[in-house]
Amino acid sequence: MTILALSLAIALAQTPQDNAFEIGANGEWIARRWSKISFDLGIFGRTFDLEGAPVNLEGKPYGMIMEGNVIRGALQPTSEGSYTLQRLRQIGRAKIDFSLQRSFDYMRSLAGEEGKKIPERSEKQMNLDLRAPEIILATTIAEGTIDFPTGGTLKSNQETPGQFEYVVRGPDQKQIKQIVQGRTITKLDLAFKKAKFFFDPAILTSPSTEAKLPIRKGSAEGDVTFDYEQVDQPNTAGLPPKKRRLNGRADRVDLDFTTLPRTITFTGNIKVDVDTDFSKSTTTTKEVVIYLDSEMKLIRFTMNSNK
Fold first, then answer.
1. Residue 125, SS3?
2. 102: helix, coil or strand?
3. Surface-to-core class of residue 202, CB atoms within 10 Å of its CB (0-12 exposed, 13-18 middle, 19+ buried)
4. 3-class DSSP state of 269
5. Pick from 182, 177, 264, 270: which is nearest to 229 by CA?
6. Within 13 Å of residue 19, how many CA atoms lie on the same side as its CB?
7. Contacting residues for 15 by C-beta, under 8 A, at least 6 apart
């Protein structure tokens, strides 16, 4: 045994679903469904190996659940006694599931236990689901990266309150404009053969109730399939939802959510289906750019066949 590190290995024969192992001063990280755990307790960090079928690792303050047949990573201790994730490699049935509601529920329960002001529930909701045979995550103070070396999928879902304009018939049967309350649901699904995305590392250090997609930018390539959909769902009974959708295939996709408007740029050999309230068409082109606002709502899109 060296002065700098102490190795701790734990292996139980009991049913993996019955296991739970908490990490951190407040148990902010918890491993479930594991069959084997191995920790190296160094003074500069904590490295670990988890095995299961698959094993489940939850970062409760951050609304994140990670899965894989094997999860290897490193946690960095903070001055408050908690641990932040520095790197992670998930092998076999890899999955990262981020939920804003899950993070909010944890902060609410913690505030109640400590007698602090309970945070108000955000009217916005956001979920992010990443899946692949292998996922590699790494963070620095400035930036985090997520690599998909052998392909995978990204699915995001965001829900925000909104106001919508409808043309309805009044008591005299004349058409009038009516502003109604409701919710907008935006979805983005991507599948690819290889990808690398950059994210805000604050999601792993500073729990927040703000609904924002953690991904900042990135690219994916290799037979990319995409599906963007926006649904404006009014609260008023009898009014139909308004839908806008673009889906298809491309050789490559580049995301840039660092500035407004946010952009999703598809390039290469593209086939795209457009279904909106003003256009329904299927076409082939060389470039499609989707422009979104801060809540992932569609502002406009462009197509260019001369690229």
1. strand
2. helix
3. middle
4. strand
5. 264
6. 23
7. none
> Residue 137 is encoded by which pair of tokens?
């995550």
Q: Which two tokens stand for residue 178?
A: 């009516």
C-alpha span between 165 and 130 (Å, rounded): 35
d(CA 103, CA 301): 33
Enter the pTM of the model.
Answer: 0.89
Q: Encode pLDDT of 238-285 as tens digits.
A: 899 999 999 999 999 999 999 999 999 999 999 999 999 888 999 999
CB 65 within 8 A of CB 25: no
Let me know: does 198 contact 216? Beta carbons within 8 Å. yes
The closest of 185, 184, 182, 124 to 155, measured between CA atoms, is: 185
- Tell me the β-bridge partners of 135: 90
Tokens 């932040």 sit at which residue? 84
Tell me the two tokens of residue 160.
Answer: 């925000």
Rounded CA separation 190/99 (Å): 18
SS (HEC) of 45-94: EEEEEEEEEEEEEEEHHHCEEEEEEEEEEEEEECCCCCEEEEEEEEEEEE
Q: How far is CA 188 from CA 130, 223, 244, 265, in A?
A: 12, 16, 12, 13
For residue 62, which of 110, 87, 99 has the smallest C-alpha distance? 99
The β-bridge partners of 269 are none
Rounded to whole angstroms, the Cα distance separating 134 from 265 reads: 25
* Calpha distance 102→96 (Å, rounded): 13
Backbone angles phi, psi at 26, to 5 degrees: -110, 15
Chain segment 122-138, per-residue pLDDT in tens: 678 889 999 999 999 99
